[in-house]
Every structure is written in structure tokens, then in C-alpha cells.
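re: ur question from earlier - yeah i can do the single chain one, its not a big deal. heres the input i used so u can compare w yours
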Amino acid sequence: MMEWVIRERPYRPRELEYSYLLEFTTRLHGIPQGERLFSRIPSEFQKELLYNNFVIVCLEKGVIRLPLVYMRKMRELGYPISYLVFNRLIILHSSSSRRKFIPKILTQMKADKVSPHVSTYNILMKIEANEHNIESLVKVYGEMDRMKVEPNEVSYCILATAHAVARLYTAAEAYVEGIEKSITGNNWSTLDVLLILYGSLGKERQLERIWSTVKELPNVRSKSYMLAIEAFGRIGLVSRAEELWFEISSAEGQKLTEQFNSVISVYCRHGLINKASALFRQMADNGCKPNSITYRHLALGCLKAGLVDEALKTLDRGSQLRTSTRIQRSTPWLETTFSMIEIFAEKGDVDNAEKLFKELALAKYTRYTFVYNTLIKAYVKAKVYDPNLLRRMILGGARPDAETYSLMKLSEQFRR
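and the output i got, formated as C-alpha cells:
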């Protein structure tokens, strides 16, 4: 339609309409087509809106060099660059190999006199949270406060979740209060985060309150049901989790692997392996294929039930299935893996504890002191002395605490 308007000119399009056309053309037909259209747009409309939109779309497609050329043109023409452009640049450089460029992007942002938006800080905090780097996360939050940028519900969600994962529950509770105060309307994504957080913090009353709010939404998503099932299971309310499972089962008919996994995780967390096994068989009857997440939960359930050999076989079956990096770095996967390490540590099974520990190290989950302390405990229980454990811990990014030194002192008696 817009192309017809440009060609036939029944009326004169404005800058906003050209901007929409350029955005849609670039998204649907590619960057070269977008560039050609850009050159055809009258020069009086080639202003900041057009440039910013084109640069953002190019960056969203993962292209960096061309947007930098257009940003240079914007500086020459004196057009302000949107903070959204810098947000997208930061996201594109958020991988481990590219993160070193983020300070340069922020420096350029300052040189261009672009003030970081709350969303900019949220992106920076999320990057640090994904790296399990609480210290750097808090630094970003401190900078945000110094610049007098008001946090929003997303900011508090990132902070609360990161501290809960790090088992810094007092700080997590404080940030949860921030979420409750800043929440705008019934945002399902924020409510989902609160379900997870109240489950992690063991807050039954608050969890029920948030779930009641979710149930009042026009459409309750399957994902919300799964998160609620896992949250109630986490605080030991297995029967309540089962109620929600029966509710979603009767409402939706055909069930998905992810839905089965949510209930299996509850049973396995509490060592109810018979119930988990029955549900596992029910999966096959429903035509659902178990995935690596299913087997990881079942392995934990076997360990909780004292079935070590069966747990190792189940782990092996799961390892033969493809598991994405995103899943392997997800909090549920990491926490399930850590729970297994805890059991192996209590048994003094250093070999199996070390095997799983390597997985956590790849995801940088070992930056948390409690993770390394659990590994050291495995050595103590096995009556094995390893003088390199403390050095490994420090080089791995974790800070030794009183428990660390106490465990290391205990292990010294096994020195040969």
C-alpha cells in the first residue's frame, strides 16, 4: 500500500509513514531492499526517525557494520541517536567473546550525549545476572542509582531473581518488595517471576496471593501453571501442586512434555520416585517424548530415593539426548544438577560430584561460594585431601567464606 502511495502520490506521506514502510520493508525483504528504499525517500524526510528505525532493524538482524556507517552519518548531520540503538548494540555484544566491547559502547553513548535509559541498565544487569556475577550486577545497580534513573519492575525482577539464585535470600526479599511496589497492572511476565520468587523464598501465603491474581487474568497461560506447580512443589506443598496439575490436565486435554516435566520435578525433588515413574509412563501413553530435562529430574529423584545405580543410568540416558546451551544454562537445570552434587557430596562420591561440577563450571554457576563448598565437602566425606581446591575456587571466581576454611581445615587431617 505504501509503495503504491509513493508511486502514485494520491497524498503526501509524512516522516512517520516513511519510517513504518522502511521498517517493514527491511524486516520482510532484507537490508539491501531497505537501503534502496531509504535512498528513494525524499531528503526532507530522511531525518532522525528514519535513521534510528533503520539502524535498529539492521541491528536486530545481527548486522553491525552497516548500522555503524549510518550512525556516523547521523553524527555528521547532527541527528540524535536513540538509546534504543545503543541498547541493541549492547545486546549484540553480550556474549562472552564480545563483552569486552560493551565499555566502549557505553563510552560512545556518553560521547553522543545519550543518557542511558532504565532499559539500558536492565540489559546490563541481565548480562551480569546471566554470568552469575552478583558483584558486577550490584555495581550496575549502584551506577543506576548514582545517575538517578528510577528502577522499574523489570529492574527489580532481575535483581530479586539473581539474588535468589545466589541464595542471598534477605536481599532477594528486599527486591521482591520493590517489584510489588513498582508493578504496573497485571503484567503476566512479572506475575510469573513472582511465582518463581515466592516459591524460592518459601512464602506460601504470598504465593497463593499471586496465583489468585494470575487466575483472574482473562487467559491463564500453560507456562504460568507450570511455574506455579514447581513453586508449590519447591515449598513442599506437593498436594497443592497436584491440584494444579489435575486442573490443567482436565482443561487442556492434550498435554506437553514440558507440563509433565513440571510435575515430575516436584515428585523428584521430594524423592517420590514411584509417583514420578508413574507419570513418566503416562507421558508415553499421551504420545509425549521425554527429553533431557525429564531424565535429569528423574536422576535426582532416584538419588533422593537412594537408587544410585539407577540414577547414574538415567543420567546417562539423558546425556545421549541433545540439550541446547540455553537449557544447560537455565536456573532449573543448574539447580537440579547442584542438588545431585549435594547428594554425591554427602556420600563422599568425588568422581560423580566432579563430573557434574564441570557442567556448573561451564555455566559459571560455580561463582557461588556454596557450590564450591559442596564440592569441598565431597572431598572431606571421602577423606581425600586436595591442596588445590582453594586455589581452584578463587580462580573460578568464588570467594571463600568461613565454611570454606573450616572444610579445608578438616580435609588437612587426610593429608598423606
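The chain has five domains: 1-114, 116-183, 185-253, 267-323, 329-416. not sure if urs matches, ping me
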